[in-house]
Amino acid sequence: MMVYLIRQVSLVLRQRLDRESRDAYALTLLAVDGGSPARSASLRMRVNVVDINDNPPSFASQYVTTVAENHPVGSSILQVHAEDPDVGANGQVRLF
């Protein structure tokens, strides 16, 4: 009779993770012994995907404006919006 003892398990990625598509995974690990009747235990775990700076900012659209030559100095001529799907500092957009 052969008896196998497995005391640890490694989780291995089968594909690339993308935090913008899915930011967490819920997993259940099941341990079963070889007794009769078999006894078991389960462990629920959550794996959070940490963001990396993998997306560039993008503008909401193309912008074109017309400005009269007598438009007041210091007044706004156009508002621009840009966003980045990354989170935290990676997703903060600054316009220069």
Structure description:
The protein contains no helices and four strands. The protein has strands spanning 24-32, 40-48, 58-59, 82-83. The strands form two sheets. A two-stranded antiparallel sheet has the order 1-2.
Distance between the termini: 72 Å
Please estimate the helix content.
under 10%
Query: How do the strands of the widest beta sheet line up side by side?
Result: 1-2
Average pLDDT for all residues: 92
Structural class: mainly beta
Number of strands: 4
The fraction of residues assigned to DSSP E strands is 15-25%
Unreliable spans are: none
The coarse overall form would be rod-shaped
> Order of SSEs, N→C?
EEEE
Give the biggest sheet.
2 strands, antiparallel
Contiguous helical run count: 0
Report the radius of gyration as a whole number of Å. 27 Å
